[in-house]
Every structure is written in C-alpha cells, then in structure tokens.
Amino acid sequence: MNTELIQRWVREERLSLADYLDGLTAADWSRDSLCDGWTVHDVLAHVTLSNRDTWRRVLTDIIRARGDWNRMTADQARRYAARRTPAELVAELRAGADLHRPAPGASQLDPLVDTIIHGQDIARPLARPRPVPTAPGVTALDHVLNSRFYGARKRLRDTRLIATDADWTRGDGSTEIRASIADLLLAATGRLEPRALSPA
C-alpha cells in the first residue's frame, strides 16, 4: 500500500472530522456514542490522543488498568476529555492532521480505520450523517477483515459481504449480507450486529 496515499487519506479524514465536529451543539458532546460507555466528547479525546501516545504512557496505563486494553483506552480518553474542552480537542485534531505516528502497536492503516470508525461512532447516535469516502473506506474495511486485532474474522465467519455502494465483495460463506461500506465497517468492528443488516 502506498504510504503517501494512506497519509493523505488520514489527513483528509481528520480535517473532515474536525469540520464536522464544528457543527455540534453543546448538548451533543455529552451524548452517548456507539462506543459503550463513551460520550461524543470522550471519542474525540481518543481520536486526538491516537497519534500522540507513547509506549511509556501505554505501559503505565495498561498496568493501571490491570492488563485490560479496552479499560485502559477508555480511561485514557475520559481523563483527556476531562482536561480539555471540545473546542480545544477539535483544534488539536486539526493541528495533528499531518502527524502520522501510529499509536504504539498500530500499523500504518490503523489511523485511517480509527478516524473513519470513530467518526461513525459520533455521527450515528446524533443522526447527523457522515459519509465514508469509497476508496479509503474499502481500504479500511479490508484491513479490519485481515487484522486479528478487531475480531472481524470470528465475528463475520461463514459470511459473504457485498457492498451496495462500491464494487467490493469479500468472503465465501453461506450467509450473504449487502450493506454500505460504512455499515460493513461497523459490523466488522462490532458496532452493528451482522444480522441487523439486510441479508441478500
């Protein structure tokens, strides 16, 4: 995969998300996101932290969270959100749009997945659509399905996925699911139950 292209997509997604967040109301920031137990404010804090984290901080925080990665990530996001206003975090997101250091343990494609998915985590509960661009979305979806980190292989085992908004299919299972790239990403990362999507 072309590193320069990926970095351009990541930059565009971060700036696009910052523009989208400029339109939120004060009440929107305290709304629940698709991330269980996270507010919209917390999700933004996590996205802003993702290219600023260090191994030292991660090791300290994972010990504090007793080895629970999800708990560590949630605790980090909430602490960071508590120290910064949404406006400050949006400004940080813009300022870091060209900062392409992946979080500890992440690949070069994970920042793209992170920004696209968390944009949907925010947008869906607010009922304020945020389109997923086709080429970055397909690349992110392929990465999620190939990675062990996201659990998509087990989640979508014996399933054939067919995008309704792109020339893309994946899998040869007995169950077919047709949905948008955005919805397939949400299913692959555990935000949507696959059976909630329309079968072929």
Structural topology:
Elements: H1 3-21, H2 40-49, H3 55-64, H4 69-83, H5 86-95, H6 110-126, H7 134-146, H8 152-155, E1 159-163, E2 169-170, E3 175-179, H9 181-188
Parallel strand pairs: 1-3
Antiparallel strand pairs: 1-2
Helix pairs in contact: 1-5, 1-6, 2-4, 2-5, 2-6, 3-4, 6-7, 7-9
Plain-language structure description:
53% of the residues lie in helices and 6% in strands. With 200 residues, it is mainly alpha-helical. It has a three-stranded mixed β-sheet. β1 and β2 (169-170) form a beta hairpin. α2 packs across α4 (69-83). The longest helix is centred in the N-terminal third of the chain and has 19 residues, at 3-21.
Radius of gyration: 17 Å
User: Any low-confidence stretches, pLDDT <50, length ≥5?
Assistant: none
Biggest sheet: strand arrangement: 2-1-3
Largest sheet: 3 strands, mixed
Give a concise summary.
This protein has helices spanning 3-21, 40-49, 55-64, 69-83, 86-95, 110-126, 134-146, 152-155, 181-188; strands at 159-163, 169-170, 175-179.
Keywords for this entry:
200 residues, mainly alpha, three-stranded mixed sheet
